[in-house]
Amino acid sequence: MIKTNLKTSQEYSKAFFAWVVSLALSVILLLSSYDFSANAVKPYVFLAFSAYALFTITQFFLTLKIRRDILRHGDIARSTRSLGYVQLLSILTGNLFIVTSAFHLVKRQKNPEYTLAVYTLLTGIFVIAVSALNLFKPYVSDTFLPSMFSLVIITIFHFIALLLVAKYVQGNKVAPFMIWIACLLILTSITGNIFALLLGLNLLFKIRNNGNPATAKWESIWEKLTQNTTAMIGLFFIIFLFSISVCSLLTFDYAMATENNYGAILLHPSLAYPLGTDNFGRCLFSRIVFGARTSLIVGIVSTAIPVVIGGILGAVSGYYGRHTDNIIMRFLDILYAVPGILLAIAIIAAFGANTVNLIVALSVGAIPTYARTMRANVLLVSTFEYVDAARAFGSRDSAIIFKHIVPNSLAPMIVKSTLTIGAAVISTSSLSFLGLGVEPHIPEWGNILKLGSTYLETHSYMAIYPGLAIIALVLSFNFLGDGLRDALDPKLG
Amino acid sequence: MEVAKVTPAQTSGSHLSRNISNTYAKMLLNPSYKYFLLLLGAPINLVVLFFYLYRRKKDTYYSLLDETRNELLESGYKDKLEVETLEQLQRKHQFFGQIRSQEKTERQAKKMTEAMFQEKIDEVTNRKLQLNQQRRLNFSGTFESLINHPSFLIISFIPGILMYILIFLYSRPYLKYVFERLVMTLFVILGVSVLVFTILHLSPMNPAANILGQTATDEQIANFNKIYGLDQSYLAQLWNNLKGIFTFDLGKSFAGNEEVTTTIARKFPITLTLTVISLIMAMLIAIPVGIISATKRNSFWDYTFMFIALIGLSIPSFWQGLIFILNFSIKLHWLPATFNPQNWLSIIMPTIVLGTGLTASVARMTRSSMLEVINEDYIITATAKGLSKRQVLLKHAIRNAIIPIITVIGLQFGGMLGGSAVTEKVFNISGLGSYIVDKQFIPDIPSIMGGVIYTAITISIINVIIDVLYAFFDPRIRTKMKQY
C-alpha cells in the first residue's frame, strides 16, 4: 500500500528525476571545469559547478524528505512543500530540472493550466537570459533595448498570470474574469511563446465549458502530457528554440552571424563570444541561434508535406481497397525501395542544392511510410460501427473519410510525425554537412558543423556546439513524440 | 502385389488431371491470375473455347431456361411480384416521409421486379438441372472434361507448358507466395530504375556544359551528347538504361572515363562489409538490451537503457564520427582516424557510428515487441504450466517477439546502406556511398543512377529473402497462405 503510494506520487518521481539529472549535469560541469592539458581550473565553470552541486545536494535531501513524508504519513508535509520555494532559486543557475520539480512541489492541487503557466514563464525567462548575453558584445542591434524591455514586461505579466492561474483555476472551475488574462496570454504568444497560446486557449475552453466536469478527450490528453516530465521538457526546448528564433529577429544582430570580421578570427569562447568565433570571425553563438530557425522550418515543413500527401494517399487506399489500394501501394513500394537519403541525393543532384530542393527531396522519400501508417489505421477504423452507420445514412464517401475515419486515425500519425521531425532535422544537417543541403552562406547547424570539422584538431568547439544543438533538438522531438504516444494511445507503446 | 503396383499409377493419373482442372477453375475466378492463365495457355484455351462453343449449341441449359421463363410468365408470378414490390416501395416512402412522384416509384418498382424475376428464373432452372442430375456447361467444365482424357494432357503438354507451370505454382501456396513476391520485386526494381532515371533526366542542368566547361563550343557539346546518347529521345534513353541495368553495362561515366558498373562493383564490397558488421553488432547489443528492458520494466536499467537508446537515435552520425575521431584519434591516439583496408582497427569506429542508430531503434523495438508478447495469454499458460521464468522467456516470449524485429532489421538495412554515405565521407572510406556523393557534384548522371539503383536492388533482394524465410519459419504465415 505504502509502496504503491511512493510510486504513484508525482512529486517524488519528479524530485528523484531532478536530482539524478542535476547530478549528471554537475559531474559534466566538474569535468569540464578542469583543463587537463594545462592542469588548471577554469574559475567560471567551477563556479557554475559549485552552484549546481549546491542545488543538487539540496534536491537530494529534499527527495529523501519527500520519501520519508510519504512513507510515514502518506502525504507530503507543508514544511516540505515550502522547501520547494528555496529550490525555485535554482532558476538563477538555469537548472530547468530542479525548477520544474520545485514548481511542481509547491502546489498541492495541480492542473494542466498551472503546468503550462510555469512553462510559459520559464520560456520567457530563458529567452531573456540567452538574449541578454548580447550585452557583452561590442555592439548590439538598434532594436535590442526596446525589445528586451518589452520581453521583460511580457514575462512579468506571465508571472502574474501564473499567480492568478494558481489561485483562480481550481479543477474545472475558472473565475470568469480570467477571460481577459487568457486573451492577453494569446496576444503575448506573438513572441513565439507557444506555451502562452496553449495556456490561453485552454483557459478559454474551460471558461466556455463553465465548470462542466464532462471533459473532452483532448483535455485528458493534456492532463497526461503535462504530467510527463520528459515530454514537457522536450516541448519546452522546442518552444524555447522557436521563441528565440522569433525574438532573434529583433534582439540579435544578423550581421554578427554572417559578416566576416577579420579582427576576431578563431577566438576561443569568451563573454563577448560565448561559443567562440569561426575562421571568418563570425560569432558561433549567434550563428547557432540563427541556425535554429532553418533547422526548425526545414524539419517541420519536410515532415508536414509527406504527412499530408501520404495521409491522403493512405486514407484513399485504405478506404477504397482492392484496385485503388493495389495501384497506390505498388507505386509507393517503388518509392519505399530507395533509401531516403540516396533518393534525396539523386533529387538534389538533378535539381541543384538549395533549401527548397532539400525540403522536396526529404519529403518525397518520407511519403510511403506515412501512407502505410495511415492505411493501416484507416483499415482498422473502417471496420467500426460508426462508419457503417454513416454509410447507412447515405453519407458521401468524402464525408465519411474526412469526418469519421481521418479524425479517428490521426493519433498514430501525430506520434509518428513528431518522432520523424527529429529524423528530418538529422537528415537536413547530414545533407548540409555533405554540401548537398542548405546553401553554404546560410547559418545552418549542418553548415556550421561542416566548417567546424576542418578545425577539429585546433578548435574542436566549432564542431562540438552545433552538434550538441542538433542532439538537443532531436532528443526533444523524440521525448515529445514518446510522451504524445503515451498520452494519445497507451497501447501503441 | 501386382494389384498394388497398378492402382497408384492409375489413380495418380486421374488425380493429376483432377488437380489441374480444379486449380484451373479456381484461377479463372481470381481477377489477376485469370488474364495470365488465358494468355500463357493461349493455344490450349483456344481449343477449349472451340469445344465450348460447339457443345453449347447442344446444351440443354438454354432450352430449359426458356421453358422456365414461359412457365413462370404464364403462372402470373411476375405481375404478382410487381404489385408486391410497388406496395413495399410506397410503404417505405410513407414511413420515411419521402415524397416521390407516382411515375418514378413505378419505374423503380419495375426495375426491381425485373431483377428479382431473373433471379427466380435462374434459381428454378438450376433446381431443374439438379433434379435431372445435369450440370450447366461452362468454360472450366469443358476444360475439365477435356483434360480427363490422358491423350489431351499429353498432346497439350508442350504448347501449354507455361500454363501448366503457372497452374502448378498456383496449387502450392508456398511456391505461389514466393513466386508472387519475386514478381513484385521485379516490378519494384523496374519501377525504381524508371523513377531514378526520370528524376535525373528531368534535371535542368546541362551535363555537357558542366563537364566540358564554359569554353566548350557547340560542336563539342553536340559530340559529347552523341557519345553518351543524350541526344536521343526520353524513351530511347530509358530503354538503353534499363537494358544496361539488367546486363550490368551502364557505359562510361561522364568524368574519369571509367566503366560505371566495374567501379560500382569495386566500391560495393567495402560498403556491404561495413553495413553487415554494423548490423551484426547492432543485433548482438540491441536484442539483449531490449529483452532486459522489457522483463525489468520501469526499473533503473530500463530507464537507463532506453534513455541511452533515445540519445543514440538523436545523434547525427557525422557528428558522432567527428567526436570519435577527436577523442580516440586526435587526443588519445588509440584508433586511426581514416579507414585503411590493411588495418582492421580502422573499421571499429565506422561500424560503431553506422550501427548506433540501428542499435537504438532495434532495442526500442525489441522492448515494445517483448512487452506486447509478455501480456499474451499463452505466456500466462506457460507460467501456469510451471515452467521456469527462463524457459517461458526463451521458448515462448522471445521466439514470438523476434518476428517483427527481423522485419524492422530488414527495413533498416536499407536505411543503413543509404546512411553509409555520410559515415563513409566522415572516415574517408571509398565505398559506394561516398562515390555517389562525390559524383553528384559533377553531376555524373550514369554513376549516380547506377549507385542508387544497384543499392535499391540489393535492398529489395534482401527484403525478399527475409520475407520468404519468414514464411518458411513461421507456421502462422504458412497457414494463412493456405487459406487463400
What descriptors fit this protein?
heterodimer; A: 493 residues; mainly alpha; MetI-like fold; 3 domains; two-stranded antiparallel ribbon; globular; B: 484 residues; 0% strand; disordered N terminus
Strand content of chain A: under 5%
CATH topology of the largest domain in chain A: MetI-like fold
| End-to-end distance of chain B | 40 Å
Number of helices of chain B: 22
How many strands in all of chain A? 4
Structural class of chain A comes to mainly alpha
Which word captures the global form of chain A?
globular
Radius of gyration of chain A: 25 Å
Low-confidence stretches of chain B: 1-12
What is the string of SSEs of chain A from the N terminus onward?
HHEEHHHHHEEHHHHHHHHHHHHHH
Structural class of chain B: mainly alpha
Mean pLDDT of chain B: 81
Count structural domains of chain A: 3
* CATH homologous superfamily placement of the largest domain in chain A: MetI-like
Oligomer, anyone? heterodimer
Main β-sheet of chain B, in a few words? none
Biggest β-sheet strands, sense, barrel of chain A: 2 strands, antiparallel
Radius of gyration of chain B: 34 Å
Mean pLDDT of chain A: 86
Describe this structure as you would to a colleague.
The complex is a heterodimer of chains A (493) and B (484). Chain A contains 21 helices and four strands. Chain A is mostly helical and 493 residues long. In chain A, the strands form two sheets. In chain A, strands 1-2 form a two-stranded antiparallel sheet. A two-stranded antiparallel sheet of chain A has the order 3-4. In chain A, strand 3 and strand 4 form a beta hairpin. In chain A, helix 11 (229-251) crosses helix 13. The longest helix of chain A has 37 residues, at 284-320. In chain B, 81% of the residues lie in helices and 0% in strands. Chain B has 22 helices and no strands. Chain B has helices at 2-29, 31-40, 42-58, 61-74, 77-96, 102-131, 139-147, 150-157, 161-171, 173-201, 207-212, 218-227, 234-246, 260-295, 300-314, 317-331, 348-374, 377-384, 389-427, 432-440, 445-473, 475-482. The longest helix of chain B is centred in the last third of the chain and has 39 residues, at 389-427. Chain B starts with a helix and ends with a helix. The interface between A and B is large, with 44 and 53 residues.
